[in-house]
Amino acid sequence: MKKLSKTLITVIALCVIAMGFGCNKSSVTPHKTTDTTAAKTQILYSMDDTLETTSTTIWSVATDGTGNKKVAISVPTNLHFDFDSDIAAEVSTDNKTMTLSLDNADESNTYFYKCNIDGSNVQAIPNIDGYIYLQTFISPTAILYWENANNDHNGELWQTNTDGSSNQQVNIALPTGVYFGDGKFAKVSADGKTMIFSTFGTTNSGSTSAIYKCNTDGSGLTLVTSDNTSGTLQAIINTNTLLYNLYNATTNEDELWLVNLDGSNKHQISLTLPTGLTLADSRAEATSSTIYFVTGDANDTQAIYSAGIDGTNVKLVANVPLGYAVKLQGLIK
Fold it and tell me: pTM for the full model?
């Protein structure tokens, strides 16, 4: 009887342990290990005074809408965040630092600075200034940027270390009639091997657009997708899927689209927004399961929203004060 009770207790204990493992397994949402954004819990964004009477500021908010606060970044007194650029601050691949894009007083020159992720320890990135737009990080200590030395809006992609060394052009031989355009968004894959970027086609007016990919040294140029309207790359999801913004000339509205890196499975994300809201012409961000985007209304009041990667479960993340415009800058831990 004693033996039987012992055995019975052992069996019950094993069942309980097994059930515990089963519960843990089902309660955790699986994700690919290559998804570098799955654990990100903060949205970094810039807030611009639409009348340009006050300087652009950088803010962060948790993805659940809590903890909305200004990031204390003390930039040099003669400089301010670049109002015209969609990318004012870019988060490093290791989530430890940021690169900042700053203009001088008359906005004739742009400079890059770097700081810790909390905004402290602001330092100049030497040897980099001019008609330049920040793009993205290639590694924790190297950035990609767009430069237009001839001031003709048909620039080039360059890369540099954040200490100002190894500044060099990325030699990409674009097809005839295709241009990088005025600071169009470029991204680098999580493994640092592939560069993906938006272009203008035929003319530099933005009437047509395309997304290309290549190796980070500029070789192996391949067309991913093209459209007969203006579109810009937004995010890389799980190394294989691209999120991009597309302007619909028929509806006069912006849309979010997904496409695989090989050009397959291209489709619009169907978003059912609250009445009176439309997708704003602003940067969007994404993880493997969630997209974050900016909306606007008839009064130009903006807000940050989230939705599932399929467009469902639309939720308000943060409201924006009247008279201000928002541009998402990145996702951080």
Answer: 0.83
